[in-house]
Amino acid sequence: RVLDGAVGIFCAVGGVEPQSETVWRQADRYNVPRVAFVNKMDRVGANFAGVVDQIRNKLGANPVPVQIPLGSEEEFSGVIDLVRLKVYSYKEETLGAEYHEEEIPDAYRAEVDEYRERLFETVAETSEELLETYLAEGTLSEEQINAGLRAGTVGGLLVPVLCGSAFKNKGVQPLLDAVVDFL
d(Cα 103, Cα 134) in Å, to the nearest integer? Predict the structure, then answer.
């Protein structure tokens, strides 16, 4: 065993492919904690939710989206961080090297609330303390969410899922942060 952690990269169009399954099973055998990245969100046919379902059904993992895409295919312009409740919009002219934070558009509010509720529920299950806090208050702080995600990831209970377009450098910075925070 030489790995402390791994990043599983899945195509937003192709989803979980046979070679990904093979590598995933190997990581299962050696208890390697993982973070998943749904790449190519800017391609025609990109389906973030479909890939998350494939990770659950084909790989038997417990995927937890910590981001959702802001648009898809040619409309993909950034990611919505479900922990910090911020949008990261990337500038096309700098190939994603520069981005700025924005508030979540109203059109995405219902979807964000739904994904965030699932995030709370999954993170709360990682410890008794978080579960008690969640049941009492109905919410968790950013620090509690990150601590629960880290504990769940390292313990093999869940897999944080992020998204982006690596070719255009969209979503890569939050992915690197996730490696530091969760692995």
Answer: 25
